[in-house]
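hi! just following up on the protien thing from before. the input was this:
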Amino acid sequence: MLRQVVDLLEIIRGKLRGHLYFIFSTEGVPLQVTANDRVIDGVLHSENTETDLFYAKGLMAAAHYLGDSALLATTDEFFRSVVLDALGDLLLNDRQPMDHKNHVMPVAGRITRGPKMLALGGIATGITLNLGQEY
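and the predicted 3d structure came back as:
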């Protein structure tokens, strides 16, 4: 099952310019929730997203578990780029409101520490797997 999920998500990530988004259709189209709770097609971005952070750290663990050294090397590179963006407060916030009574949206000028905290699990995985001194 793990191999199937990884392969499916990697196909979708390939269609989405190397990124994943908080929500997307079964065809892999990024989706966006509007202020009036309509789900519409979203926009493809070239920037790393907060969802990329969740995905990259999980993908790193999955690649290790599967014994897929090629995927682990690719994922290590992907994860490092996402973490560097998190450290520089450059991650695209792609969260979408899921509760129509609580539309949590990004606030201009607010710097969140959330992505840095989320990166800790992936960084610990990199250390455990001896992926490099940078970890």
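The CA atoms of residues 54 and 118 lie 7 Å apart.
Strands lie at 31-33, 39-41.
cheers
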